[in-house]
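Moderator note: this is an archived Q&A kept for reference. The question asked for a predicted structure of one protein chain; the sequence and the answer are reproduced below.
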Amino acid sequence: MLPATVQAQQNPVWFPFNGKSYFLLGVNYPWYNGYRSLDLGPYLGTKTIGSVAFVSSPRETLNLPPHDVPDAPSSVRPGTTGFNAEGIEKQFEDMHRIGIHVLRWFFGGDGRSLMIFDGANRCTGVDSKALQNVDRVLALAKDNDVHLVPVLFDFRFIGGDSWLRYEDNSPVTGRADVIRDSDKRRALIENFIKPLVKSCANSSAILYWEIMNEAGNVVEGTDPVTGFNASRNQGPRNRPKVSVVEMQTFLNEAYEAIKSVDQTHPVMPSGLARPWQLAMVVGRVKADLYGAHYKDDGSDFDRIQPVAAIRDELFRTYKLTLDKPLVMTEGPAQLQRHLAEYLNGAFDGGWAGYLPWSYYRLIGFNDLKRYPQIVTSNPNKPQAAANIDHYHAFNRSHAAAVKLGL
């Protein structure tokens, strides 16, 4: 049963692909095997990381079996990488069997890999080995008919990562100065964004680019044009932030840079943490489509808004026009946490797709843990089997809408 606020849309604005439009049925990866930002290239920092996963969270918060939560830190030294072509291939094959057509992957994350920085926090290039690994990933995705959404940055690139600690227990503080400073921002765009995008521009495995996950979490202040105020944002407290205008400037410059080397693939500025943050980008930032989340613990299920309501609210409050596809870029991946309600709410509510968090949760595992074995779906996990059966059923009943290129 759908939440009462969701009503079927007569003319949904879906994602354009090869002359047709589709509802994007997929999932967040968002990384391979718990390495968080280190799954495509080596750790390029100089300090040993004491822990990558969020080991301090209560088990009940993660809603996972006790043995799936890491109990002790696992050090990561400079040069370490989580890249595993065999494991990624097995998971892509598994996704194909499940009916996952779109995969949202945090390529750049918080900046610990792929991009190279000098001592002044200026980006000087892209790691060559990481680019080779990206090429391998694109080939594997194409072989398994999985379409990738590379997310160039996570908001932790700016705000730091409270889940990560170095061996001396100090946190990663983020690189807000790279976004604020025009010269450092230009170096990041010229030496990381453009080379990476250019290397992937001709790949049919890329579906669209997303510049930054949850960009609204690390902004403060007010948009002087619309009056949008960031004070409601749910990002990390006491962490570095940039102004609304600084973020808009970066997203606009990044969009232009991507388009300068890749005219084929659409660009989303950000999969924002909540629909209300769309006022930061709609009409203010160049975009081909938009994205917004709902809580992945399922607690927002009774507040899922149809796109028509979001559109009306944006126009009424800010005189902004939402006229491009809107993807639900995060939400729950477990039926007991309202997966069905979110997916149906997105489909019937005029959204252009649903990408739950995450592939690992969908198949009954913890996406923060590093596993010694290759993890794929297992029929012995009954809750995961129910999730997968739901995806199979949705694929059967909505084949023309979700199977890209059909």
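Archived answer notes: The chain has twelve helices and 18 strands.
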